[in-house]
Specification:
The protein is mainly α and 240 residues long. The protein contains 12 helices and no strands. The model has no long low-confidence stretch (mean pLDDT 83).
């Protein structure tokens, strides 16, 4: 009787059999949760195994080491910036797209997120993985930069440089948020995040105004040319 009860207990205690897809998902879910909590550098492969409830053989059957796992993991997860770029290039109003992109970045990075930890890892460590993700993100920005340049060609508005400064500022504020506020702005405070959104809106509207003024000057210059006015006089008129 005792052996029968023991056998039944063992059967109940057995874990349900997981498919290959289930195991892969468990590893990735555990890794993402731990990385968001601790960062890439402080997440150990043993912690991932424990949280995923797998044996070491299950992990190492798939990956040689944690670096190989991270290499595949970040390629799958580093989608956020490319998606934002693709969405930003679909709109008809360029400045609305710029504002939307900047707000999406701010929302993504102001809270706890895998993407924030990936940026933190890139800044803190140089390795094959961080070099790859950094270069990939730059490649994703090139089509958008080209779109900006085509709209602002021949103007004195360097929208690409403006965008680089704004994106870099968002990066720094979010990466620095757990150390101290910057200029009194605390990204951990939702009210301060809203202040940043309002500031971004003001900057974008200022850029829009500059573009409209530039367009007006170009129309004036074209009308003056049709009337036979010299280029020297046109330059003096449109620079007023």
């Amino acid at each position: 009787m005792g052996s029968i009860i023991s056998s039944e207990s063992n059967q109940k205690a057995r874990k349900p059999r997981r498919t290959k897809a289930d195991l892969e998902k468990a590893i990735r879910v555990a890794a993402e949760k731990l990385i968001v909590e601790r960062g890439f550098s402080d997440t150990l492969v043993t912690d991932i195994m424990k949280m995923a409830d797998i044996e070491p053989t299950v992990f190492y059957k798939r990956y040689k080491n944690i670096s190989e796992f991270y290499s595949e993991f970040v390629k799958e997860r580093d989608y956020w910036f490319s998606d934002i770029i693709k969405n930003a290039m679909k709109g008809e109003d360029l400045m609305d797209d710029v504002y939307s992109m900047l707000c999406c970045l701010l929302s993504e990075l102001s809270g706890k997120s895998l993407m924030l930890e990936l940026l933190r890892w890139e800044v803190a460590q140089g390795n094959d993985i961080t070099n790859y993700t950094s270069k990939l993100r730059e490649e994703h920005t090139l089509p958008l930069a080209g779109k900006y340049l085509s709209h602002y060609f021949g103007t004195n508005v360097d929208i690409v440089a403006w965008s680089a400064l704004l994106i870099g500022g968002i990066y720094y504020l979010c990466l620095h948020k757990d150390r101290a506020p910057f200029c009194g702005i605390d990204v951990n405070n939702p009210e301060h995040v809203e202040r940043l959104r309002m500031a971004l809106h003001s900057i974008v509207e200022q850029l829009r105004w500059l573009m409209e003024k530039q367009s007006e000057k170009e129309k004036i210059a074209e009308n003056l040319r049709k009337q036979g006015v010299s280029e020297d006089i046109i330059k003096k008129c449109v620079s007023l």
